[in-house]
Amino acid sequence: MKRFMKTGFFALTLSIALTMPAFADAAVSSTNLDGISIIPAKDSGADAGTIYYADGAEESIDDDYTALFLNGSLIKNSDLVISNDRALVPVRLIAEYFGADVEWNGDESKIVITENGNTINLYMDENVIDINGSVSYMDAAPAIINDTAYVPIRFVSEALGAEVEYSDGADLSGAYIIPRIPQVMISRYDEDVSALSKDECIEIVREKLIEAYENKYGEFEPLSELPEDFVWNDEEGLREAITNLEITRENDRYYVMPAVFEFWADKYTGEVYTFYNGLAMTINEFVPLSDGALSFAG
Questions:
Q1: DSSP code of residue 22
Q2: Cα 147 from Cα 205, distance rounded (Å)
Q3: Residues in CB range of 12: below 8 A, 6 or more apart
Q4: Counting C-beta atoms within 10 Å of the first and last residue's C-beta, which end of the chain has fewer, N or C?
Q5: Residues 6+ apart with CB under 8 A from 51
Q6: What is the CA radius of gyration of the chain?
């Protein structure tokens, strides 16, 4: 997968926060995608679109909106903006998630980021970055936006061991989480945590689909190929899709498998989600024995 920091078109930035709690849990937590619904601005029929979060919160988004995902979670009110072909976001979002401390040295107009024994020094209005005494130059200088200090993430993320990728939401040849919306994906997972394999995730999704199928239709019998004169019906179509389940794309957090809907397997928790790409893009945890588990829209 092509890393965002290598594209040359965008560089995320981070702002100052004074005290940050550590993120030291070795286990990977669930993401916040269950129950999220997104209507992009261009599809809303109004001046703005809307993100509906599972906790009842709503966020208005316009055509300039760029989503920020941290380890697969959509960050609410991330304040991410695009300025001069650079993506900018407050540092507290990264620091809180990855356990970094950020301080402001007013005497030297300097931002100091520390984490795991590493020290990153950045200076306002200068393109210099000092990482543990090693100096290099960034393609953008720290700046003040809405009374908040921002710095280029490309260099900071490398220093913190995070990977950064970008998708414009239209070119789907690379990594992305959701289509139709520009997005920045930042990821860093504890080195003690291993991702599930592709085969393991395929079997997790297949077992859940078989459970849902048998709850609705009765005993599941594999169907390797549909007949040439097949007229679509959910029961037989699902038998074939379940039998031949495969991963068609992936990003840092999810393996994606189509079976009428897209089914997403979380690489780190084994949780399974459905993604429906309608007027509203909706993401929900797949519960095989729930009412309507296999009721597909369209």
A1: -
A2: 47
A3: 4, 80, 86, 87, 88, 89, 152, 153, 154, 157, 164, 184, 186
A4: C
A5: 36, 37, 38, 39, 58, 59, 61, 74, 76
A6: 22
Q: How many CB atoms lie within 10 A of CB 45?
A: 9
State yes or no: pLDDT of 19 exceeds 50. no
pLDDT tens per residue, range 160-219: 889 999 999 999 999 999 999 999 999 999 889 999 999 999 999 999 999 999 999 999
Q: Beta-carbon neighbour count of residue 57 at 10 Å? A: 10
Alpha carbons 56 and 193: distance in angstroms, whole number: 31
pTM of the model: 0.86
Helix (H) or strand (E) holding 212: helix 198-217
The one-letter code for the residue type at 44 is S
Cα dihedral 16→20→25→28 (10° resolution) = -40
As a whole number of angstroms, the distance between CA 207 and CA 220 comes to: 11
What local confidence, expressed as pLDDT, does residue 135 receive? 94
pLDDT digits (tens, 9 = 90+) for 127-160: 899 999 999 998 877 877 788 777 777 777 777 8
Q: How far apart are CA 53 and CA 62, in angstroms?
A: 17
C-alpha closest to that of 186 among 72, 266, 88: 72
